[in-house]
Amino acid sequence: MAFNKDSTMILDRWLETFAITAIAVTGGFLLNSSDPLFVHARFPWVWFGPLLIALRYGIAPGLVSTGGICLALLVMPRFGLPIGEFPTNYVLGGLLMVLITGQFSDIWSKRLRHANQLSNHTSERFEQLSRAYFMVRLSHDRLEQNLISRPVTLRDAMINLRNLLAKHDGRMDSETSAALLSILMHYCSLESAAIYPANDDGELLDVPIAKCGKGAPLNRDDLLLRSAIESGYSAYQAINRHIVEGRPSAPSALSSAVWSVDVSRDESKEQTSYLVVAPMRTSSGKLLGLLLVTEMPFLNLHRETLQIMGVLLAYSSDQAESVERARDILGLFPDCPPNFAAELIKTVRLKRDLHVSSALVMVQVMADSRLDEICKTMERQQRGLDHSWLRTTDWGAQFVTLMPFSGPASIEGYKSRIHEILQRQVGRSTGQEGITMHSTSVTTDDPLVQLVALLEEKQ
């Protein structure tokens, strides 16, 4: 899909290049038939065509358009439009103008792509942190009742799901989807529901990949389902009514934060058979599937349940996408967090495409009685954009930190901060007493090779 989109954009660019050049030359013939290219005019108006192309698309299309003007100069005498001696200054002046404009366009286009990449990366990371924060808050709020009434906590269930996704290379197949649906049944009290997968183009498949109870048949013309797909929201599409004795009534417990659709009118075309339609969408916007719920307890259809459902689906989708991206790294290091591996791959791409610097810093701690305390101290020092990985070894531990958008100055600042924190809170410093630190800037090489090289460094 991305390939087709890029091909279409490239084709449109060259079609516009030839079209604008042809329009400029044709307009000259219509406005000034004796001198259509304005060679002898006070101002060479025809050069606005190549100028606009260079400003919009850069140097290469601008040069092609300039070639079109030169070709017209060579062909004109054959149609009875003599231009006299070839206008060298006219062509050189236009060529220099196009080159300068194209260079300006290329520089600012690159800067805009750079800014967009940084903005997208920051937005994705913020979305992931928001979901992780909600998971932690929810886990703490319900810890007491979970320990009393439920043998498995939400954290344990999601860890098991993450490990299962790693074994299946990040694919949302029947086994992983069944595990996710089991968690949703446990924490959201679903009675009848189904998960329908989506293909790479974001189109839903007809067969459910997992279901519980009576399931939920896929009706593509359903009002609620269409609203969920067309809105583009990663929040959940919740119905704002519940059937009571065959009549629709609106429960007041539904959250205004959940996108809802009014289906309480009598028109049959606006009726829906679903209580909840929840997209499984990643932080990057990719649709992995759709959860359809047809039956659940009325008292559970409220703000908190819908939020829990949303976060669980979003978290699972992010984990699946991360595992799929970082398949090679997770194959060699199964204990590596999928998000860490996926972000490492993303920073390598940023370095290759936009020359954005990132860094990897590793702190090695030899095994002793204060190993856990030292590791927890370092975990508390992570920035919001950073990703960390605590790797346990036979001789101790390696605490690896991935720092996006960080150059040599940021590396030195991080080292200094860790040194001071350890000295103040633990009474130890790096470079002695079994604590060593290594760092490297992320390059354009294979991310797995870079990670292995860092982990193998020892003093």
From TrEMBL:
<protein>
    <submittedName>
        <fullName>Membrane protein, putative</fullName>
    </submittedName>
</protein>
<dbReference type="InterPro" id="IPR038367">
    <property type="entry name" value="PelD_GGDEF_sf"/>
</dbReference>
<keyword id="KW-0472">Membrane</keyword>
<keyword id="KW-0812">Transmembrane</keyword>
<feature type="transmembrane region" description="Helical">
    <location>
        <begin position="51"/>
        <end position="76"/>
    </location>
</feature>
<feature type="transmembrane region" description="Helical">
    <location>
        <begin position="88"/>
        <end position="108"/>
    </location>
</feature>
<dbReference type="InterPro" id="IPR029016">
    <property type="entry name" value="GAF-like_dom_sf"/>
</dbReference>
<dbReference type="InterPro" id="IPR031583">
    <property type="entry name" value="PelD_GGDEF"/>
</dbReference>
<dbReference type="Pfam" id="PF16963">
    <property type="entry name" value="PelD_GGDEF"/>
</dbReference>
<feature type="transmembrane region" description="Helical">
    <location>
        <begin position="14"/>
        <end position="31"/>
    </location>
</feature>
<keyword id="KW-1133">Transmembrane helix</keyword>
<feature type="domain" description="PelD GGDEF">
    <location>
        <begin position="334"/>
        <end position="457"/>
    </location>
</feature>
